[in-house]
Automatic annotation (TrEMBL):
UniProtKB keywords: Aminoacyl-tRNA synthetase, ATP-binding, Cytoplasm, Ligase, Nucleotide-binding, Protein biosynthesis
Domain of life: Bacteria
Name assigned to this protein: Proline--tRNA ligase
Keyword ATP-binding found: yes
GO biological process terms, semicolon-separated: prolyl-tRNA aminoacylation
Gene3D superfamilies with a match to the protein in the record: Anticodon-binding domain, Bira Bifunctional Protein, Domain 2
Subunit structure: Homodimer.
Name of the gene this protein is made from: proS
Domain Aminoacyl-transfer RNA synthetases class-II family profile: 38-341
Coarse class of the protein's main subcellular location: cytoplasm
Function: Catalyzes the attachment of proline to tRNA(Pro) in a two-step reaction: proline is first activated by ATP to form Pro-AMP and then transferred to the acceptor end of tRNA(Pro).
Family statement drawn from the similarity comment of this UniProt entry: Belongs to the class-II aminoacyl-tRNA synthetase family. ProS type 2 subfamily.
Pfam families: HGTP_anticodon (PF03129), tRNA-synt_2b (PF00587)
Catalytically driven reaction(s): tRNA(Pro) + L-proline + ATP = L-prolyl-tRNA(Pro) + AMP + diphosphate
Length: 445
């Protein structure tokens, strides 16, 4: 993409309405525009990052054996009357009437609808296990939408639902989700800690939230200092291997990590004092085992091997896809702007032409652009007739992890400059070497 042809409406001034850095930077970098409280348009740069996050979520869900589909945003109220949640859900549910005076709603989540799909088509244990998921817009009429995409009213969520014959099978599905979520966040360059969450009316220990540590987070968190250092790394996971998947969950949940909702001071104080940490976190996902709550209420049953009929065992599992943009920026920025991790960056590399119109500089930039594209990369070429300082400021604000700077003086010596956004360090090298280096960096992502 050439910047002169792109749509990147950056703001010079700090928007007054933004209280936290991620919201401020998303507005300044021209990623989103608010259309109503908690409702945003995704401008091209923001949309690119959103799509990359979605792609990672899809890849890791499919790797875990989960199957994508797509349910609508609008739902008939009758499904929610069956589960009893139409009256219970309260004011967060946006209720709509169609022209025939039928009650509809903009889905805040999809347990009822997925259970309806299941009961219409599945009736035998032979079709289990089954996990279906989608990435779809949700609406929750939050009392206080705030912090930009972090707490919106309309937001993009990945929500998945497992259907299993036995409780053990459903707990394996729960574990599979935990591991696939850990991998998903790690690929984005984020550390998200699974923390035991409030169990609610279901009882048991079977819900975890995933929290990204950040001073602006809405939850207070208490954890053992060893927990954030845990990494999946590049170990190979066989999602059908129950013992392996359970062992990884045990490894990541053994040490103390809880939010204020479930915090237990006595247990916390058993950690050696120098390892006790109190901080704040952003919830970027939650997994939940709820057994037969919806299948019983809605008659989703399967025939067992011995011929009897039982309600199917279920759980639901969500990732805050649009919220992740905010969380990523909270965790990756400096005073100049965003610093995208390579896994989610909107463009892989920026090209800055220090002297637009200079024949050698223009040709070198065009050559770099072509060579990067040939390597399967997406460069953003700042070909505007602007001062170097302004070009650098834009690149720093939008946070591309790598920048190649091209000027007549360097070219006279056969070199361009490759700069890391994160460290600020620059290195001179030939244009070919710069392309190879950038390609090599992304080959490992
Ligand atoms: N209002 C919102 N704006 C943006 N993301 C949200 C919002 N509400 C929930 N999410 C994201 O969706 C994920 C799954 O939602 P869920 O756990 O059902 O929500 P909640 O924690 O509000 O009960 C959450 O972990 C969070 O990342
Ligand atoms: Mg939650």
């Amino acid at each position: 993409m050439r910047l002169s042809r792109y749509f990147l409406p950056v703001l010079k001034e700090n928007p007054a309405e933004a209280q936290i850095v991620s919201h401020r930077l998303m507005l300044r970098a021209g990623m989103i525009k608010q259309q109503a409280a908690g409702i945003y348009s995704w401008l091209p740069l923001g949309f690119r990052v959103l799509r990359r996050i979605e792609q990672i979520v899809h890849e890791e869900q499919i790797r875990a054996g989960h199957i994508p589909l797509l349910m609508p945003t609008l739902q008939p109220a009758d499904l929610w009357r069956e589960s009893g949640r139409y009256d219970d859900y309260g004011q967060e549910m946006l209720r709509i009437k169609d022209r025939h005076d039928r009650d509809m709603l903009y889905g805040p989540t999809n347990e009822e609808m997925i259970t309806d799909i299941f009961r219409s088509h599945v009736s035998s244990y032979k079709d289990l296990p089954l996990t279906l998921y989608h990435i779809q817009w949700k609406f929750r009429d939050e009392v206080r939408p705030r912090f930009g995409v972090m707490r919106g009213r309309e937001f993009l969520m990945k929500d998945g639902y497992n259907f299993d014959l036995t409780r053990d099978d459903a707990l394996h599905a729960y574990n599979r989700h935990m591991v696939s979520y850990l991998r998903t966040y790690e690929r984005m360059g984020l550390t998200a800690i699974p923390m035991r969450a409030a169990s609610g009316p279901i009882g048991g220990d079977n819900t975890h939230e995933f929290l990204v540590l950040a001073s602006t987070g809405e939850s207070e968190v208490f954890y053992d200092a060893r927990v954030p250092d845990l990494k999946l790394g590049d170990r190979v996971v066989d999602y059908d291997d129950r013992a392996q998947v359970a062992a990884i969950c045990e490894e990541f949940t053994r040490a103390y990590a809880r939010t204020d909702e479930t915090h237990d001071e006595a247990l916390f104080n058993q950690i050696p004092e120098d390892r006790r940490r109190v901080g704040r976190g952003i919830e970027v996902g939650q997994i939940f085992y709820f057994g037969t709550k919806y299948s019983e209420a809605m008659g989703a049953t399967v025939v067992t091997p011995d011929g009897s009929r039982v309600p199917v065992e279920m759980g639901s599992h969500g990732i805050g896809v649009s919220r992740l943009l905010g969380a990523l920026i909270e965790a990756n920025h400096d005073e100049k702007g965003i610093i995208w991790p390579e896994g989610v960056t909107p463009f892989h590399c920026g090209i800055v032409n220090l002297k637009q119109g200079d024949t050698a500089a223009d040709a070198a930039c065009a050559g770099l652009y072509k060579a990067l594209v040939a390597k399967g990369l997406d460069p953003l070429y700042d070909d505007r007739d602007e001062r170097a300082g302004a070009k650098f400021a834009t690149m720093d604000l939008i946070g591309l992890p790598w920048r190649i700077t091209v000027g007549p003086r360097g070219l006279a010596n056969g070199v361009v400059e490759l700069t890391s956004r994160r460290t600020g360090l620059s290195e001179e090298m030939s244009p070919e070497a710069a392309v190879d280096r950038v390609a090599q960096i992304y080959a490992g992502v």
